Amino acid sequence: MAKCNTMVIALATVLVLLLIDGGEGFEICNIDSSQLNLCRVAVTGPNPPPPDQKCCEVIRQANLPCLCQYKSLLPSIGIDPKNAFALPPKCGINNPPQC
């Protein structure tokens, strides 16, 4: 269990660094992590705007069930999970996973 927690902490740290520093990306759930910033405005704040076309392209290529496992990490990087998991329907994806 400690190994799993360490991996989660390491992943959260990498994601934070990528979002803050714009570092080189890596693939996570069929998305290059550097592309996640394309959806940042649509998942932050109390009343985010709808996702734009570029964000929806990222969401459409994502392995959505895979992304569910990162739901608990989202608040640590300033993302509201409710907003994040509302993106698939807003991008026209029917029957997204229920995380």
TrEMBL record:
<keyword id="KW-0732">Signal</keyword>
<protein>
    <recommendedName>
        <fullName>Bifunctional inhibitor/plant lipid transfer protein/seed storage helical domain-containing protein</fullName>
    </recommendedName>
</protein>
<dbReference type="GO" id="GO:0009627">
    <property type="term" value="P:systemic acquired resistance"/>
</dbReference>
<dbReference type="InterPro" id="IPR016140">
    <property type="entry name" value="Bifunc_inhib/LTP/seed_store"/>
</dbReference>
<dbReference type="InterPro" id="IPR036312">
    <property type="entry name" value="Bifun_inhib/LTP/seed_sf"/>
</dbReference>
<dbReference type="GO" id="GO:0005504">
    <property type="term" value="F:fatty acid binding"/>
</dbReference>
<dbReference type="InterPro" id="IPR039265">
    <property type="entry name" value="DIR1-like"/>
</dbReference>
<feature type="signal peptide">
    <location>
        <begin position="1"/>
        <end position="25"/>
    </location>
</feature>
<dbReference type="Pfam" id="PF14368">
    <property type="entry name" value="LTP_2"/>
</dbReference>
<dbReference type="InterPro" id="IPR044741">
    <property type="entry name" value="NsLTP-like"/>
</dbReference>
<feature type="domain" description="Bifunctional inhibitor/plant lipid transfer protein/seed storage helical">
    <location>
        <begin position="29"/>
        <end position="99"/>
    </location>
</feature>
